[in-house]
Design goal:
The structure holds two protein chains of two kinds.
Chain A lengths: L4 E8 L3 H9 L1 H7 L3 E4 L4 E8 L3 E13 L3 E6 L13 E10 L2 E9 L1 H14 L1 H23 L2
Antiparallel strand pairs in A: 1-7, 2-3, 3-4, 4-5, 5-6, 6-7
Helix pairs in contact in A: 1-2
Chain B lengths: L2 H12 L1 H13 L4 H5 L6 H13 L3 E6 L2 E6 L1 H38 L5
The chains are: A alpha+beta, B mainly alpha.
């Protein structure tokens, strides 16, 4: 494995068209990732994570490529006023392959070698960030199970 | 510690030879440029350069004993890098499970109500 990249794949019993819609549309993205999601027609947008009662931590998103239903990629976390590029953001790539009656979804996230250590230090040293993940991760599981049970 | 040094950490770990050196140091506890080069297909001089890179980002620390510097892994620093990657990885596992459930729910609804399409 290349240190500094995350690679995953998962088989989904749904057509590539449906999976593409789930990974790329802001309405669905809010259900599997952030609390808020807004994309413009120019591919620029932002996703928001609630921090307590009123605060929202907004992160910029720039769509790199959208080729339905096979490929969707975006960069995120670049600073306001900067164009998304290698070195200032993370790159997330979804590749969708038809697999029988379903889809093989492959995800890679890269960019950690270019800029990740500052983030790693934040994660290790700042209790609020760590407790943010402690809050976020357990919250995912009951929601996912609820969606699954409602089928 | 400056930000520039911090940003170098990932490229330090990104090199396969340096990762192998970290493995060797972790299993042996300590090592010198000479002892490491005996287990690697590179020269002692190349190993010394790699050690300097690792030293600069705080992944190894040197102690001078006798004629050579003896290097040891800073396990706290290494653990930080590894923990960050594991954290990102496990959060993606959760996200992908949600993507799977959402897509399969939608697919199922489509099949149950084909006239709506």
């Amino acid at each position: 494995m290349e240190f500094g990249s995350i690679e995953r794949e998962i088989r989904i019993e749904a057509s590539p068209e449906v999976v593409f819609d789930v990974v790329s549309s802001p309405a669905h993205l809010k259900e599997w990732w952030s609390d808020e999601a807004e994309f413009g027609s120019d591919g620029e947008g932002r996703i928001g994570f609630r921090q307590g009662d009123a605060d929202i931590d907004w992160q910029r998103v720039t769509v790199v490529d959208a080729m339905p239903p096979r490929h969707f990629s975006f960069r995120w976390t670049h600073a306001e006023g900067e164009a998304a590029a290698r070195g200032n953001s993370y790159l997330v790539v979804f590749e969708l392959e038809p697999a029988g009656t379903g889809t093989l979804l492959k995800m890679t996230e890269t960019g950690f070698r270019e800029r990740g250590w500052a983030e790693a230090k934040v994660a290790a040293e700042h209790a609020d960030h760590v407790s943010g993940w402690d809050y976020f991760l357990p919250r995912l599981v009951p929601y996912a199970e609820k969606v699954g049970a409602g089928r | 510690m400056s930000t520039a040094v911090d940003d170098d950490l990932w490229s330090a770990i990104g090199d396969p030879t340096r990762r192998r050196m970290l493995d060797l140091l972790l299993s042996a506890g300590t090592g010198t440029a000479t002892s490491l080069s005996e287990h690697l297909p590179v020269t002692r001089q190349a190993v010394a350069k790699h050690l300097a890179v690792l030293d600069r980002v705080g992944l190894v620390h040197a102690a001078t004993a006798g004629r050579e510097k003896h290097f040891r892994v800073d396990e706290t620093q290494l653990a930080r890098a590894v923990a960050q990657l594991e954290e990102v990885g496990s959060s993606w596992d959760s996200r992908l499970q949600r993507i799977k459930r959402l897509a399969e729910t939608i697919e199922k609804q489509k099949q149950e109500t084909p006239n709506d399409q």
